[in-house]
Design brief:
Length: 1641
């Protein structure tokens, strides 16, 4: 059915969709994945039906209806496109856009209508105000008239009466106008209401389309999910299968290995046995030789004996195996016998179970009857009864299987799997073959052959059978259930669907075979019930019940028909199935006649009086019975109607009143066919359909021919109206005797028509009287069942002796001022020569001419006249009414006069006159200023004003002009407009003015005037067109060109000089240029600004770097985020639904829990709505966000390529660009502008970067100078083919290095490139690495910043920890700040912990060398092996601009004054940033003396030291000074003001918790008089020092008078310290005099 024939309601639409949705639900439950395309087609078909149902409404308004039809067609196209699944989104967008465009148009129409309605309402209100004003004026005039009448003022009275009449007239006009405006307003309001209704329907259709699209998308997603699930299952299954195969291969490998080992072992064992046999044989030979026997004979006998033993052993094993086989066969036979016995007992139990209730009852009745009637032996009776019972139970078994199965004991039915298998093997053949093969039919046994016991058994059996039959017929049927569906309808199909015996003969026998097919979902039974009551005497059926029939199986039924009466019979064959009854229709059709005519009207057309014309009509019998027919005219030919015209000019018309029966008879064939349609068999349905269609076609042709006949007769009468117009009103009625018979029958008027045959009937037309002739004929048949058939014949008689075969001469389409000719052929019927005169109407005598003007036509011959037509441009004015200016159709009447008979023949010349003009728009072209290096293109439109196609061509074009397409040559269709490109290229600088000529095929010329100014700019480009190769996204293609300044001389005679038109020559100076590249253009020109000296050229590099649009990436990112949000919302909704279902399944839910659930649902709904309302904005996305990067990678992978064309202007100015002011001080002429055209094709890359979100830039960031950083860049081949990669060469002296390149990439493969960066300077580095493939290149930008690390330390060179009590700790802190811009990795190293310290100690001790040459910084160390100095932290990072505190801990374990170490601050494990010397001293007692020149070495002795206690005892005994201190004093002699030599000695007390209770320390000097005598002065001779303080003792010396300068002074004094112990220090005071003028080294 077509869409416009479908009109479903919404309920029917839901009903039609329900099976489909149920089927989808079942498939989801079963876990079966169907084909997506098939489900898509089903869904779209359902949508199409639903859409068709909504299309059934029609709009009342025609204008709105047309738009509604167009929108519905677009919607049908959208809903009907079922096959194209992959283009669904594009189709949806097109449909939505179409509907939106229609809605927009409707909105515009609505606004216009509202404006019109507003205007009409304004007019109405104005009209009403006008009416009120006129009414007031009229009242005023009436009052004034009354006043003037009373006053008797006749002049004023007449004036007022005229005014009164005028006001009345205006009032009536205004009322009429008000009425018209009201009607218009009502119409507009109705249109607006209809438009609003249509708009609502349109919006509803759009919403339905969107809803259907969402359903389709949802369904498609579900189907795809099922497909994915199925694929996942298949993949898991394949994985399991592969694992099993791997395990099998491994086990096979293991077994092969073990077998190989066993085989090797067996071979070794065989070799050993063979060797042992050889040894035995040798021993045996030696023994036989020792005994003196025959060695060969004995060995041969021994071998024969061994072979005999082997044969005996083999025979024993063979016997043993045969015994085992025999025993197993015996056991199997025993088991089979046991199972057979079990099966026999089961069969007996089943038979006994079938006769438990009913059989016991009728068995007792039977025995009572037998005992009463016959007295036989009990054994014979029981035996006969048992045999009959077996037969009857076999008949009843099918009806009581269900009851028997319920009554069988459970222990009989329950068998093990082995018993069932054995039972299947043993029950292949019946236990009692005779009983199974015997057919027991109780109906075929006569009562005489039965005994009394058999008769009783039969009676009881028939009662049980009838009872079971009644139960079966009461409707206890099984339901058809398969796959969860309950099937409704007939469970068996018949093939053919109807049993039809057609065209039978009485007394014959007919047989037909039908096939019954089980169309249910399960196993079914089928049995014959019977046929219809009225068919039992004629129909017999042979049907063997097949038993159980599986779904799809079939059985055969043979139907025999013995007709005894010649009548049509109808009935049905009834069957009974397990699921209900069904029937097959049966028809028996007797032979009959089916008669029809191929046409009901014969049209002879127009013929001259005296001719004889013959036509035939076919009478067809499509039935199997023949009959006789007879053709005759209608009763008295009273149905014939004609109109005649005699030569005297009188027209005779005769009317008959018997036309009503004619219609009845003419409709009889169709009626007979329709009435007998019900009696036709289904096998002849095609023939009947064809017959009915043929009759309907005849009826249509009849109506058409009758209308055409009436029109033709009217045309003929109109053509004859010119002849005898004065006598046309005189009408005479002719009698039947005067009217000749003009339409008559041929030779065949009656005869026999056989079955399936046809007869041709001839109808003859002999025109006698001019006018229309009509005759009616009736065909009668002998068969009373056949109704008469009617047909009619018409014709027209003409009495003019001359006629034109072609009275309408069509000259087709003609152009002005072109000559057209044609030949008019005139035929003569007369038997004498006639004189003809040819005339054209006066209006067209200037344009049309017939040659010759007069001619003679011979008897019964033809004559040709030449027609010449030359239309002038004055034709529309001259032709008048013969020419229609709108359609441009010309109809010219031409008259042929017969001179002698004063008769004429009219012919008409038709032509469509059109112009031959071609219009060029615009008529003038000004190309403007054009440089000699470029071409200027403009468009002109060439329009064909003619309705004929015209060829055109631009001829004699100048060399500097080109017209495209086709070089300005082509053909224009009628009224077609063609856009032509006119390309102008100036060859030199001058002013151009020229004309272009376009010629048409008739040599007409059309001019196009053109103007232009040629410009020769001072600069030129080496290439004005750059065509880049196909460049991948984020790749780079470069091209080089030159900007040349060839203007070196102003002599225009030797070469072309730069100028604008005929203007002045440009000066020979340096010329500047500037390229202006648009902002969004992916093209870079370097340099874009420059200056070219005369005769020089400048290199320009143009780079094309295609990228994806930022807006496109943002839109895709937003789309993906919205999709992800929708998926999240859907998942959340599913979880909520699952929770609700789980809560519904729970039985006991308290009211408090339900309230909580309501609160949760409300909050979740609020969250879901809030989540859905938050839509991401594209402006909020950042370029470094994950969504942006993912969208960019997706678009890059799915990029299909694009081609862009850019035209870059290059402005030219005379002069040199100032570096400070730029190009502002230069003035450029826009006419000297050069243009660079760039063709930029972009393609998808073959290789993409997958690491770092697909960025093509590798930024190492800040890296310390000398440090190396490595990065991995992952690339992927996204092309379908294998790629061979190449790489560009990086700067060999640069910091970048491609550590590991990639050679080959398979399709879809990922590999990593390794690039390192090691800067050697403090600056930025940038290089590009090109990854080259066969088609495209991928450019990788590598950048990095080399940074020189810098730090500031709070300690400069030495960190002195001071004096510490031995075995105690002291800490100190220093700070290092990172002043660089990168994070620094540091480590702290001590020389005492260096791995090379042991090697350094093998050299000479440092105290042997001078203090200036010493390189050893590590002093005294602890005895316990631990480091004296420790630092925390030892390694880490310092962020840029931050600082780090370091804690140094000094922990000596014995007394020493020379603890020292060196600390190195190392950056990145390489560079030493700071070196700090660590010093410290340790004492056993809290007192120390510091100063002077050390007299001992800083290295401790390797000798064994005494214990502390023994040292103390020794000190107490000796009481010698602990240490000697040398103080050097140098007195400078020769200065104007002598200054004493000064030095210091520090005495301090250590603050410690160990000696916290001790008193302050005391010190004192001895030998003071001697010191004073020698010139030494001590500031503090004695004093006390508190713990933690240091006392500085100043010592000065002035040489005494008796001092000798060449002999240094040496004085010794003793310094005593008293604290926890008493210590003495020997102070050596050495003084000398130094000259102030002595040279210093």
């Amino acid at each position: 059915m077509e869409d416009n024939e479908i009109s479903y309601s919404k309920e029917e639409e839901q009903t039609s969709l329900l099976p489909f949705l149920e089927e989808e639900e079942k498939e989801d439950k079963a876990g079966q994945c169907s084909n997506v395309e098939e489900h898509w087609e089903e869904y779209k078909l359902e949508e199409e039906l639903a859409g068709g149902g909504k299309m059934g409404n029609k709009d009342t308004s025609e204008g709105v209806g047309d738009k509604y039809d167009s929108s519905m067609e677009s919607l049908e196209h959208y809903l009907g496109d079922v096959n194209n699944v992959q283009a669904v989104k594009y189709t949806d967008r097109v449909c939505v856009l179409t509907l939106q465009r229609n809605l927009k148009e409707l909105n515009d129409i609505a606004k216009e209508k509202e404006l019109v309605v507003q205007k009409v309402r304004d007019k109405l209100s104005t009209c009403q105000l006008r009416i009120k004003m006129l009414a007031k004026q009229l009242d005023c005039v009436d009052i004034e008239i009354e006043k003037e009448e009373e006053a008797g003022n006749v002049a004023a009275l007449s004036r007022l009466q005229a005014m009164h009449r005028r006001l009345c007239t205006e009032l009536e006009k205004e009322k009429d106008f008000e009425l018209k405006i009201g009607l218009t307003l009502k119409e507009n309001i109705k249109e607006e209401e209809s438009r609003k209704e249509y708009e609502e329907r349109h919006k509803k259709i759009l919403e339905d389309a969107k809803r259907n699209h969402e359903k389709a998308v949802c369904f498609l997603r579900k189907s795809i999910a099922r497909i994915h699930e199925k694929n996942a299952k298949e993949e898991a299954k394949n994985q399991e299968h592969m694992e099993r195969r791997i395990q099998a291969v491994l086990s096979l490998k293991n077994s092969i290995t073990s077998n190989r080992e066993k085989l090797q072992t067996l071979q070794v064992w065989n070799k050993a046995m063979a060797f042992e046999a050889k040894k035995q044989e040798m021993k045996m030979r030696e023994a036989i030789l020792a005994e003196g026997g025959n060695v060969a004979k004995e060995i041969f006998l021994h071998k024969r004996l061994l072979e005999h033993e082997k044969q005996k052993q083999a025979s024993r094993e063979l016997q043993k195996s045969r015994k085992i086989e025999i025993v197993s066969q015996i056991l199997q036979e025993k088991a089979s016998l046991y199972k057979q016995k079990k099966s026999q007992s089961c069969t007996k139990a089943i038979k006994g179970g079938g006769k438990l209730d009913d059989s016991l009852r009728w068995r007792m009745k039977t025995w009572q009857y037998i005992e009463k009637t016959w007295k036989h032996s009990a054994g014979a009776i029981s035996q006969s009864w048992w045999s009959r019972t077996a037969c009857s139970s076999a008949d009843v078994r099918t009806a009581s299987v269900g009851e028997i199965s319920e009554k069988i004991p459970h222990d009989v039915l329950c068998e093990s799997g082995e018993d069932e298998k054995g039972r299947d093997d043993t029950l292949v053949e019946p236990e009692f073959p005779g009983l199974w093969s015997q057919e027991c039919d109780l109906h075929k046994i006569s009562k005489e052959e039965m005994g009394p016991n058999q008769l009783a058994t039969r009676v009881v059996t028939e009662e049980i059978f009838e009872k079971k039959k009644e139960e079966l017929q009461t409707g206890i049927f099984q339901k058809q259930i398969g796959s969860g569906h309950e099937r409704k309808g007939c469970t068996f199909y018949s093939k053919p669907s109807c049993i039809h015996f057609k065209d039978f003969d009485v007394g014959q026998i007919y047989k037909k075979k039908i096939v019954l097919i089980n169309a249910s979902y399960s196993v079914n039974f089928c049995r014959l019930v019977g046929v219809s009551e009225w068919l039992k005497d004629f129909i017999s059926i042979r049907f063997d019940p097949p038993g159980k029939m599986s779904a799809g199986m079939s059985c055969e039924v043979v139907v025999t028909f013995k007709p005894m009466i010649n009548e049509t019979l109808e009935g049905e064959v009834m069957f009974m199935a397990q699921t209900g009854s069904f029937s097959v229709p049966l028809k028996c059709t007797a032979k009959r006649c089916i008669l029809a005519l191929d046409k009901e009207l014969i049209d002879f057309g127009s013929h001259v009086v005296g001719e004889t014309i013959s036509r035939t009509i076919n009478l067809t019998n499509s039935g199997a019975l023949g009959t006789r027919f007879k053709v005759q005219t209608s009763a008295g030919d009273s149905s014939t109607c004609r109109a005649t015209a005699k030569s005297s000019g009188r027209m005779v018309t005769r009317h008959f009143s018997d036309c009503v029966p004619e219609q009845k008879v003419s409709n009889s064939p169709v009626t007979s066919v329709v009435e007998k349609k019900e009696q036709i068999c289904p096998d002849h349905s095609e023939e009947v359909t064809y017959c009915v269609a043929q009759v309907e076609q005849q009826r249509t042709e009849t109506s058409l021919s009758s209308s055409s006949t009436e029109q033709l007769g009217q045309d003929v009468l109109n053509s004859r109206s010119d002849v005898g117009t004065d006598n046309a009103h005189n009408l005479v009625e002719l009698s039947p005797e005067e009217t000749p018979v003009e339409i008559m029958l041929g030779k065949v008027t009656e005869g026999e028509i056989g079955p399936f045959s046809s007869v041709k009937l001839q109808i003859i037309f002999i025109p006698a009287i001019p006018g229309d002739v009509r005759a009616q004929f009736v065909i009668m048949f002998d068969n009373s069942d056949c109704k008469p058939l009617c047909f009619s014949a018409i014709g027209v008689s003409i009495d003019v002796p001359v006629w034109v075969p072609n009275p309408n001469i069509d000259l087709k389409i003609c152009m002005y001022d072109q000559l057209y000719q044609d030949c008019i052929v005139i035929q003569s019927r007369a038997k004498a020569t006639l004189c003809l005169k040819f005339e054209v109407c006066k209006e067209l005598s200037k344009h049309m001419e017939l040659l010759p003007k007069t001619g003679y036509i011979q008897a019964q011959s033809s004559f040709s006249v030449q027609l010449k037509f030359l239309p002038r441009h004055s034709l529309p004015k001259d032709a008048g009414s013969y020419f229609n200016e709108e359609t441009r159709v010309l109809e010219v009447p031409v008259t042929i006069l017969i001179v002698d008979k004063a008769k004429k023949v009219n012919i008409t010349v038709h032509a469509i006159v059109t112009t031959s003009d071609l219009e060029i728009s615009p008529a003038q072209i000004n190309f403007g200023y054009c440089t000699v290096y470029e071409a200027v293109q403009t468009n002109v439109t060439l329009t064909n004003k003619s309705i004929l196609p015209q060829e055109f061509g631009f001829v004699r074009l100048p060399e500097f002009v080109e017209i495209q397409p086709n070089d300005g040559i082509g053909i224009l269709l009628p009224l077609e407009s063609l856009t032509l490109d006119v390309i102008f290229k100036a060859d030199k600088a001058k002013e151009y003015s020229f004309e272009l000529t376009c010629k048409s095929e008739i040599n007409r010329q059309f001019k196009l005037s053109c103007k232009a100014v040629g410009v020769h700019p001072p600069l030129e480009l080496s290439h004005s067109l750059v065509q880049f190769a196909a460049t991948a996204l984020n790749g780079v293609s470069t091209a080089k060109l030159y900007v040349m300044n060839s203007h070196a001389s102003v002599n225009h005679f030797t070469h072309a000089v730069p100028r604008i038109g005929n203007g002045e020559v440009a000066p020979v100076v340096p010329t500047s240029f500037e390229f202006c590249v648009p902002e969004d253009c992916p093209v870079t020109i370097t340099p874009s600004v420059g200056t070219v000296l005369p005769g020089k050229k400048s290199l320009i590099q143009v780079s094309f770097r295609p990228t994806l649009s930022d807006q496109l990436i943002r839109e895709e990112a937003v789309r993906r985020l919205c999709r992800a949000a929708a998926t999240g919302a859907e998942i959340q909704k599913r979880k909520k639904d699952e929770k609700r279902e789980g809560k519904k399944l729970s039985i006991s839910i308290t009211r408090q829990q339900s309230c909580r659930q309501l609160v949760r649902d409300g909050s979740s709904k609020y969250l879901t709505s809030l989540y859905s309302s938050e839509q991401p904005q594209s402006k909020d996305l950042k370029p470094d966000s994950d969504a942006y990067m993912a969208a960019q990678a997706f678009l890059m992978r799915n990029f299909s390529g694009r081609f862009e064309k850019f035209i870059i202007p290059c402005f030219v100015a005379s002069g040199q660009i100032d570096e400070k002011k730029g190009s502002e001080n230069l003035s450029c002429s826009p006419y000297n502008t050069l243009y660079l055209e760039l063709h930029c094709p972009a393609v998808a890359p073959s290789v993409v970067i997958t690491s770092d979100n697909g960025k093509n830039t590798v930024n190492f960031g800040d890296v310390a100078v000398g440090h190396r950083m490595i990065k991995r860049i992952t690339i992927q081949n996204i092309s379908p083919e294998k790629l061979e990669l190449g790489f560009s060469v990086l700067n060999p002296n640069g910091p970048f290095l491609l550590v590991r390149p990639v050679g080959m990439l398979e399709a879809g493969e990922n590999k990593a490139l390794i690039v390192s960066f090691c800067p050697n300077e403090n600056k930025w580095f940038c290089e590009t690495l090109d990854i080259r493939t066969a088609k495209t290149n991928l450019t990788l930008s590598i950048t990095g910043h080399g940074v020189m690390p810098s730090t500031v330390c709070s300690v400069e060179e030495v960190l002195d920890m001071g004096y510490v009590i031995a075995r105690e700790k002291v800490t100190s802190t220093f700070k290092i700040q990172n002043t660089s811009t990168l994070t620094l990795q540091y480590s702290v190293q001590l020389d005492s912990l260096s791995s090379t310290r042991d090697k350094d100690q093998q050299s000479l001790p440092s105290f042997i060398t001078s203090s200036l040459q010493r390189t050893e910084f590590v002093g005294t160390q602890n005895y316990n092996g631990l480091s004296v100095f420790s630092i925390f932290p030892t390694e880490g990072e310092i962020v840029a601009g931050k600082s780090q505190d370091f804690i140094v801990t000094f922990s000596p374990d014995h007394e020493s004054l020379y603890y020292s170490d060196r600390l190195k601050f190392v950056l990145f494990g390489k560079k030493i940033a700071h070196v700090i010397h660590l010093k410290g001293a340790a004492r056993d007692h809290p007192m120390f003396v510091e100063g002077g020149v050390p007299l001992d070495v800083p290295i401790e002795s390797l000798a064994v030291t005494l214990p502390t206690s023994s040292q103390k005892a020794l000190k107490a005994e000796l009481q010698e000074p602990v240490k000697s201190i040398l103080l050097m004093l140098d007195y400078i002699e020769g200065e104007s003001s002598p200054v004493p030599a000064v030095t210091e000695l520090k005495v301090g007390a250590i603050k410690t918790a160990q000696f916290a209770s001790k008193k302050n320390m005391e010190f004192s000097f001895d030998s003071l008089p001697l010191l004073q005598q020698k010139g030494f002065t001590i500031e503090s001779v004695k004093g006390t020092i508190e713990p933690g303080q240091v006392k500085c003792i100043s010592v000065s010396w002035v040489p005494p008078a008796d001092f000798r300068a060449d002999d240094p002074l040496l004085v010794t004094a003793l310094l005593t310290l008293k604290g926890d112990i008493k210590e003495s220090y020997r102070i050596l005071f050495m003084a000398k005099v130094v000259s102030a003028y002595a040279p210093t080294k």
